[in-house]
Write a structure and sequence with these properties.
Blueprint lengths: L1 H6 L4 H25 L4 H12 L1 H19 L3 H13 L7
Helix pairs in contact: 2-3, 2-4
């Protein structure tokens, strides 16, 4: 999944930004629901919690994407490809 997201142009910075935006939107939705709706504080709390639960997911994806970006910038990908080639026996190992 991360490889596909990386190929589509999603960066770790975008995911971290989405995490922080989720925190802000959580607070904003709580305030708006508390003031604008007659449903009371219980509904406002549910809106705030619902949106706030997205933040850890975005931060986790951002951290994983940062690792993916780092690995793409090193020889680790080449090492994995060589290991897979050796494991399947489709080619002789180099070196």
């Amino acid at each position: 999944m991360l490889k596909m997201m990386h190929q589509k142009g999603v960066t770790s910075q975008m995911l971290f930004t989405a995490g922080f935006a989720s925190i802000g939107l959580s607070f904003a939705s709580w305030m708006l629901s508390k003031k604008a709706e007659a449903a009371g504080i219980d509904r406002a709390d549910r809106w705030g919690i619902f949106i706030g639960e997205w933040a850890p997911t975005f931060f986790a994806l951002g951290t994983a994407m940062r690792m993916e970006e780092h690995w793409r910038g090193t020889d680790v990908e080449e090492m994995y490809e060589q290991r897979e080639t050796m494991r399947t026996g489709s080619a002789m190992p180099v070196g």
